[in-house]
Write a structure and sequence with these properties.
Elements (H helix, E strand, L loop, with lengths): L2 H18 L6 H21 L7 H26 L1
Helix pairs in contact: 1-2, 1-3, 2-3
């Protein structure tokens, strides 16, 4: 997947995760959350033996789930400080 498409998918995934998790982030944070979230979720799928999700919708779903996980983890860490 090209960088432009990755940025677009990341932005959409981050925005959807932001709405699901009732968070308030900016565009750059949404892009980063979506891209890193997709990488983390695909890595977790690989650990359990499931092949990586590919294509626009597979990447979008992986990005949303991964971004939600990142937001949840951040809230858990932030709550302990």
């Amino acid at each position: 997947m090209g960088w432009i498409v990755a940025i677009i998918v990341g932005a959409i995934a981050g925005w959807i995760a932001e709405k699901i998790m009732k968070a308030d982030h900016g565009l750059l944070t949404n892009i980063v959350l979506g891209i890193i979230g997709a990488m983390i979720f695909n890595g977790l799928l690989g650990l359990v033996g499931i092949s990586e999700r590919t294509g626009f919708f597979g990447s979008l779903i992986a990005g949303v789930i991964g971004a939600c996980l990142l937001i949840w983890i951040w809230r858990m860490i932030k709550g302990r400080s």
